[in-house]
Known about the structure:
Layout: H1 5-10, H2 22-33, E1 37-38, E2 43-44, E3 81-84, E4 93-96, H3 107-119, H4 130-137, H5 153-164, H6 182-194, H7 205-213
Antiparallel strand pairs: 1-2, 3-4
Amino acid sequence: MTDWWNPVLDSMPVLVEGATGDSVVMLKHLLATVGAFDPLFNTPRYQTQTTFVTGKKQYVDLEGSSPGEGHVRFAILSTEIYAGFSEGGSDVVGTLTTNPYNDEFNSLTKTVLNSWKKSIAGPANGVCDNWTWKALMHSIDGVPDLYPGDAGMDVQRMQHLLSALKYLDSNDRNNFNGVWDDNTDAAKRLFCEAHGLAVDQPCDGRMWTSLLTNYVW
């Protein structure tokens, strides 16, 4: 499938605040792939507001914060948090009460999306559009075929998309290690079987198409 990515990515939905569904989950997973946030370590990467609260629906981040520095930390795509703060740097708390990979495009999703787009000289307009999907997939250089044993960001994209479709556990950080290992291969085989693809095939244009659109061949 030569240059399959342009028509497929052109068909992806436009998402704005208030949107829900599987495409929003996919967006959040791809934002994690490009480093916009690290939900499993509760580390927002781009949000820089410095307000902190306790037991409120609020968000907070001081860029570069870490335990022991007295900064509250939590996943930015969550809407419900309990944030504890200690001036001395002890008892730092940041506990999620909602799944950061949920299917809600809320105000925090918009914030992290805008911050990431701005960081790559994109339009910080709060919209996940065709430009955004292509940037998230880095399709300017084409989307490569992948094979068992491959490693790198494209493999991590594949892993996150498998997780968005519930073939890998989003709570296990090892599932996003960027290596096509045995665990990734097992999930990929189940995915291919369910989508009319050969279980031993590479992650080629047909598989990428199914990962992005849930298409069954």
